[in-house]
Amino acid sequence: MKNFIRLVGVTSLSILCFNLFAQETADAETVMDMVQFCQEVADEDGTGGLTMQDFLLKCVNEELKSEGFSPVTKLPKA
Predict the structure, then answer these.
(1) What is the CA radius of gyration of the chain?
(2) What total of structural domains would you count in the chain?
(3) Most CB atoms closer than 10 Å: which of 31, 43, 66, 67?
């Protein structure tokens, strides 16, 4: 039983590590599409007290994550 639990733990950890490193990087066009979407969200709903740049970065990274892409550290210039 202990070996089974260990096997499940190691397998789960391996899958988690694989998923962390296997994320794709989104191309510039995809990121810019997400920036435009997030800009529209900000215009309609506000930024929740964040600066526009901080809001856009957070929003874009949330969208990237939901699509299986790795996050960005800065937004591309338009």
Answers:
(1) 18
(2) 1
(3) 31
Q: Residue 24 forms beta bridges with which residues?
A: 69
CA distance 38 to 30: 12
The identity of residue 20, as a single letter, is L
Q: Which residue range(s) make up the domain with 72?
A: 25-78
Nearest residue to 58 (alpha-carbon basis) of 43, 69, 46, 47 = 47
Report field, pTM of the whole predicted structure over 0.85: no
The model's pLDDT over 24-67, given as tens digits with 9 standing for 90+, comes to 899 999 999 999 999 999 999 999 999 999 999 999 999 999 99
- Is there a contact between 68 and 23 (Cβ–Cβ < 8 Å)? yes
Confidence class of residue 7 from pLDDT cuts 50, 70 and 90? very low
